[in-house]
Design a protein that fits this description.
InterPro entries: Tn1545/Tn916_Xis, Tn916-Xis. The protein is built from three helices and three strands; from the N terminus they run E-H-H-E-E-H. The chain has 66 residues and is of the alpha+beta class. The longest helix is centred in the last third of the chain and has 11 residues.
Length: 66
């Protein structure tokens, strides 16, 4: 049974690299944002960080006030 590749835009959780490419935000900036206390869009899986896509979309909408 082989690995199934799911397109990034259909994933619920994204790696830092995937989120960086999808949202045009640097990996280091994403890492800094996910280090903040109370960050609602980060999911830790062992030592890996995943970005919860829907919550991150909501976060970006809330800070984008223009």
């Amino acid at each position: 049974m082989g690995k199934i590749d799911i397109p990034v835009w259909e994933k619920m959780n994204l790696t830092l690299e995937e989120a960086s490419a999808m949202y045009h935000i640097g990996v280091n900036e994403l890492r800094e944002k996910t280090n903040e206390p109370g960050c609602s869009f980060v999911l830790f899986k062992g030592t890996h960080r995943l970005i919860k896509r829907r919550q991150f979309d909501d976060y970006l909408a809330s800070i984008n006030t223009w």
